[in-house]
What does this fold into?
Amino acid sequence: SATAKGLGQALDKPLIHVPTLDAMAYEHFGTDRLICPMLDARREQVYCGLYEFHEEFRVIRGQAAMGISELLSEVNGLGRPVVFLGDGVPVNRGRIMAECAVPYVFAPSFASRQRAGAVAALGAVYFLQGRTETAEEHKPEYLRMSQAERERQKREQEERPGKEVFQKGAQGG
It folds into this structure.
């Protein structure tokens, strides 16, 4: 990200943000199944997204960090067959087998990784869609706070009892 930003600034060229999970899903053209790439985020959490790519590439749920049970509940609610891929699959295989109520398959290891060709191809699609940004506009996309940020937030909350500290992007109910 820093290298791309530096090159964009030096050469005065636009940047195209291609999320990792989008690129992983983009390799699964032609499937009728939902595509669910997941990366292990530890502590029973995954970085995941939901996509389809039968005739055109469509993001159903953009990449997010969530609990594996929450993801499986969402997949079950969609009621469609799904293909799971990524390094979050081996870690969560047992949970998927126990909790997934729709037909599912696990992508083979060679189809479970991000590939440069898919990033480039999807980047070209996003470019044609006008999804560019300047180097100055570009900011890294973090799907959850770092451990240090979570500990600081907890400390601040303990120092100010009765006042809630909300995470960026958190929803109230």
